[in-house]
Write a structure and sequence with these properties.
heterodimer; A: 419 residues; alpha/beta; Rossmann fold; 2 domains; 7 strands; B: 367 residues; seven-stranded mixed beta sheet; 14 strands; 3-methyl-2-oxobutanoate dehydrogenase (2-methylpropanoyl-transferring) (chain B); THDP-binding (chain B); EC 1.2.4.4 (chain B)
Chain lengths: 419, 367
């Protein structure tokens, strides 16, 4: 008999019988857990279970290991994946250098983590809402955020939709359903859960990115538990890149990474090779299907490596060996892996590579130069958007400052700001 | 005493226990109901928890994206504010969350980000601090930092606050000053049922994130005729509850009732005519009403339950001093809780009660 044919009354009868059985046959009846007795006094240890294995599709040479795991993406999609990963890479190089030259105040690269961004973004739809940490620039690249938009934000010029209020790389785009980044770590996790709750039944999922360091914050615990108990269609995507600034993951947690926490919250969990763009694509696709069908959360832990410094304010040679970084940037590069895959299928070659890199470099430089030339927004924008409508006390402060700037205009960089 | 015996006999009857507590409790104020209704029409006699319940009911009825959540709200809430709402609006819209304040606030911000009306409850204002980061760094700054691309304006946080007779350190706090230092938030404190209903509906519909701190001693202790209609009380507007010429008394929440009684005492004992202002809204606050009164009377006393140092009274005093300097006849006075944690058995000596306020008035007159 199929389950659907069992009547509700029968189900209730079964439930009652089971409960009666539980009371009569000496099973535990504690409300806190549905379980069995044991008379063996034994610790449960991390070794009771083996570590969660890492799902991969390609080997280090970019060969698909089991063809049934090949997502069989079109040539167009694969090429876009590669181009977006390299575009992100080129943009990172130029903006990183520009910070070194003092032209922008701050920057954070995505080196080594390109596949986590692109693979997951490709598996979702534009309608799906993204909450990020700060190292998910590739998701925006995939969604079509223009080079000029990245540059405008980093420069905080008149064309920045964020009106120059936040530090560089704190991107956001209403049009692309990418919620504006904020610096406090992990705050976006319970927010993503709340958004997913409110979007339930609208055929959209929410994806929320965070690093393994951020997962130590209390907000991560809050989010996992709320997502599970309130049945929220949210994908919690952890980029475990081995470091939180200088802190190696062994000082961040003692368990089996982040993935092992998922089952503890009652959450379906996947661990994936974050340097394998197809593997990331597959797990995200599956996570979305499950989240939508069941209205439940999924945790994905993508194992990867932070090849670049934490930020432009960090010199990572102070806390990790050069050889380690070299290994990951050469042997385990997600970009190289995809390139080898494409070359073996005849989708890419050295000529294409050269032409593409030249083109994208030119594009980045052009939008960079244009962004640098634009003035900053009118300084009075400082007072807008604190509230929907400006309250009297803020208006007074703005007017006072206007008078002051008028009197002392040679003391302020007025000419750099729009009128 | 009969009641004592009754209470002992019915230790399990919570209603009796509450009644017993209410009758035996030494309250430091006499509730003064609002005489004027803000709108015409039918009225129902309600205490403050019932008025809040009525506001929540109205909010849910008029906005199908509205949802109410927090710890123990499903069965009606530990203060009965959400009673009957889950039955009426379903488990998807009125639900318990896990016991985690930062989660509640973060979840609320996210729901508001996508346009839902999120009405979150923090069980006691004393426990809002785990959510401080979410409220201060996130909710308050969401619109600003995104250049108005994203906001969480449809978010309201409700939290019971203030002295209750025996709440000690963690069931008595008045944390309004912490939040008043946060641009982007709006903060209100009602003085009774009518105000609570109007302010809560205003908060829910305001396009900015709001915190309503509800003096919990008024939940049952304050009863008045509350309009059945759907109405809002303006955020940012103070109420002059008693007109006077010689002295301005400013307070909010329960303290307003202390000040109303003190004003009467001052009139009887010193022949002094006090103006009593309920500030209502902590952020933004009504500078115009306050300063107009201060300029007229020349003497100002501010009273709040929270500690003195950096309490919201300091902000008021500094502004009054700046705006009304030439009209002041005496330094602005503050009668507040002491710079200690909120104590259990010493509560009668801690609160800025009518006698301390009366003495404050005398000192102001004698200055």
């Amino acid at each position: 008999m199929s389950l659907s044919k069992i009547s509700l009354r029968a189900l209730t009868r079964i439930a009652c019988r089971n409960q009666a059985k539980a009371f009569s046959n000496d099973s535990p009846t504690f409300p806190g857990a549905a379980t069995s007795w044991t008379e063996k006094l034994e610790f449960l240890t991390p070794k009771t279970y083996g570590p969660i294995p890492v799902y991969r599709v390609m080997d280090r040479k970019g060969n698909v290991i089991h063809s049934e795991q090949d997502p069989k993406l079109s040539e167009e999609i694969i090429t876009k994946m590669y181009k977006d990963m390299t575009k992100l890479n080129v943009m990172d190089k130029i903006l990183y250098e520009s910070q070194r030259q003092g032209r922008i105040s701050f920057y954070m690269t995505s080196y080594g983590e390109e596949a986590t961004h692109i693979g997951s973004a490709a598996a979702l739809d534009l309608e799906d809402l993204v909450y990020g940490q700060y190292r998910e620039t590739g998701v925006l690249v995939w969604r079509g955020f223009k080079l000029s938009q990245f540059m405008n934000q980093c420069y905080g010029n008149t064309d920045d939709v964020g009106k120059g209020r936040q530090m560089p790389v704190h991107y956001g785009s209403k049009d692309l359903n990418f919620v504006t980044i904020s610096s406090p770590l992990t705050t976006q996790l319970p927010q993503a859960v709340g958004a997913a709750y409110a979007l339930k039944g609208k055929n959209r999922v929410v994806i929320c990115y965070f690093g393994e360091g951020a997962a130590s914050e209390g907000d991560a615990h809050a989010a996992f538990n709320f997502a599970a108990t309130l049945d929220c269609p949210v994908i919690m995507f952890c980029r475990n890149n081995g470091y939180a600034i200088s802190t190696p993951s062994r000082e961040q947690y003692a368990g089996d990474g982040i993935a092992s926490r998922g089952p503890g919250y009652g959450i379906h969990t996947l661990r994936v090779d974050g340097n394998d763009v197809f593997a990331v694509y597959n797990v995200t696709k599956k996570a979305k299907e499950y989240a939508l069908k069941e209205n439940k959360p999924v945790i994905i832990e993508a194992l990867t490596y932070r090849v670049g410094h934490h930020s432009t304010s960090d010199d990572s040679t102070a806390y990790r060996p050069k050889e380690e970084v070299e290994h990951w940037s050469k042997t385990e590069s997600p970009i190289n892996k995809l390139r080898m895959h494409m070359e073996s299928k005849g989708l890419w070659d050295e000529t294409k590579e050269k032409a593409w890199l030249e083109e994208v470099k030119k594009d980045v430089m052009t939008s960079f130069a244009a962004a640098e030339k634009r003035p900053k927004p009118n300084w009075k924008e400082m007072f807008q958007d604190v509230y929907k409508f400006m309250p009297t006390h803020l208006k007074e402060q703005m007017d006072q400052m206007e008078k002051h700037v008028e009197q002392y205009k040679d003391k302020y960089p007025v000419k750099d700001y729009a009128n | 005493m009969a009641l004592n015996k009754l209470a002992l006999n019915c230790v399990l009857g919570s209603e009796v226990r509450v009644l017993y507590n209410a009758l035996s409790k030494r309250t430091h104020f006499v509730y003064q109901p609002d005489k004027k209704a803000p709108v015409d029409g039918e009225k129902t006699k309600m205490n403050m928890f019932q008025a809040i319940n009525s506001a929540l009911d109205t909010a849910m009825k008029t906005d199908n994206t509205a949802m109410i959540f927090g710890e123990d709200v499903a069965f009606g809430g530990v203060f009965r504010c959400t009673i009957g709402l889950q039955q009426k609006y379903g488990k998807e819209r009125v639900f318990n969350t896990p016991l985690c304040e930062q989660g509640i606030a973060g979840f609320a911000i996210g729901a508001a980000n996508v346009g839902a009306t999120a009405i979150a409850e923090i069980q006691f204002a004393d426990y809002i601090f785990p959510a401080f980061d979410q409220l201060v760094n996130e909710a308050a700054k969401c619109r600003y930092r995104s250049g108005d691309q994203f906001n969480c304006g449809s978010l309201t946080v409700r939290a019971p606050c203030g002295a209750v007779g025996h709440g000690a350190l963690y069931h008595s706090q008045s944390p309004e000053a912490y939040f008043s230092h946060t641009p982007g938030l709006k903060i209100v404190v009602p003085r009774g049922p009518i105000k609570a209903k109007g302010l809560l509906l205003a908060c829910v519909r305001e396009p900015d994130p709001c915190i309503m701190l509800e003096p919990k001693t008024l939940y049952r202790g304050a009863v008045e005729e509350v309009p059945d209609a759907d109405f809002v009380s303006q955020i940012g507007k103070a109420d002059i509850l008693r007109k006077g010429d010689n002295l301005t008394l400013i307070g909010w929440g329960t303290q307003v009732h202390v000040l109303l009684e003190v004003a009467e005492m001052a009139k009887e004992q010193f022949g002094v005519s006090c103006e009593v202002i309920d500030l209502v809204s902590i952020l933004p606050w009504d500078k115009e009403t306050v300063c107009e009164s201060a300029r007229r009377t020349g003497r100002v006393l501010i009273a709040h339950e929270a500690p003195l140092t950096s309490g919201f009274g300091a902000e008021l005093a500094a502004t009054i001093q700046k705006e009304c300097f030439l009209k002041l006849e005496a330094p602005v006075s503050r009668v507040t809780g002491f710079d200690t944690p909120f104590p259990h058995i010493f509560e009668p000596f801690y609160l800025p009660d009518k006698w301390r306020c009366l003495q404050g008035i005398k000192d102001l007159i004698d200055y």
